[in-house]
Amino acid sequence: MESWRQRLESLDEAQTEMLLGSPMTQRFAAWPLSVSHPAVVGAFYGLLLMAALIIPIGYHNSWNVEFWFREVAFRGLSIALGLALAGQFSSLISKFFQRPPITPPRAVLFIMPFAGFIILLGSWMDLVPQIPEVLAWLLMLAPGPIYVHLSWAPRYRMLTMLEDGKDPFGPSRVELGQQEMEQELVDAVNAIDD
Q1: Average pLDDT over residues 151-158
Q2: Among candidates 25, 145, 139, which has minimal Cα distance to 89?
Q3: 171 pLDDT exceeds 70?
């Protein structure tokens, strides 16, 4: 059975670009499909985020190794699980609605985690007064699920369809609606003739 990568050669340039997307999407597409499921990509984003927070969490816990390890493990696993569930939900939504991938505004998604990181560090160091910590966590966590939902989950669905030998660019719902309208017109003409 040929893989989806071999089937890319039969697609035109616009279809190939839609499937492969941006350089970040191409990195996930380079992974095997069994490893690049939207739930796995979401959990991966959560683990990367927690890797960046290991030192700040140590500072927040006054470098107490027991509390530090416990908080990193609990938050890391909780965030990875939450983002994996969000990725799974996005995958199910993508299969149900079958919408094409949307490229989210990268400049905004790229800045959000850094802004959240700065706000979180500022609030932990008492440099930024009266900014809720929840806002910082929201800014840090939101880009991963937004990217997975808008961009990766639809592409993953299309890649798995291609892998299964199906045409991910098959007739759209609009075309199906037009075919039904044409059939109704033919039926109406046939009814008039009878």
Answers
A1: 90
A2: 145
A3: no
- How far is Cα 68 from Cα 31, in angstroms, rounded to an integer? 33
Q: Is this prediction's pTM over 0.85?
A: no
Query: Which tokens is 77 given?
Result: 């696993």
Q: Angle at which helices 65-97 and 153-163 pack, to 10 degrees?
A: 60
What's the whole-number mean pLDDT along residues 62-76?
90
pLDDT of residue 185: 67
The pLDDT tens digits of the residues spanning 98-140 come to 888 888 888 888 999 999 999 988 888 877 777 788 899 999 9
Tokens of 122: 């500022």
Q: What is the per-residue DSSP string for the chain? A: ---HHHHGGGS-HHHHHHHH-SHHHHHHHHS-TTT--HHHHHHHHHHHHHHHTHHHHHHHTTT-HHHHHHHHHHHHHHHHHHHHHHHHHHHHHHHHH-PPP----HHHHHHHHHHHHHHHHHHHTT-STT--HHHHHHHHHTHHHHHIIIIIHHHHHHHHHHHTT--TT---HHHHHHHHHHHHHHHHHHHHH-
Average pLDDT over residues 54-77: 89
Give residue for tokens 């039904």: 180
C-alpha pair distances (Å), 90 with each of 20, 29, 125: 18, 17, 36
- Residue 18, C-beta contacts closer than 8 angstroms, at least 6 positions apart: 100, 101, 155, 158
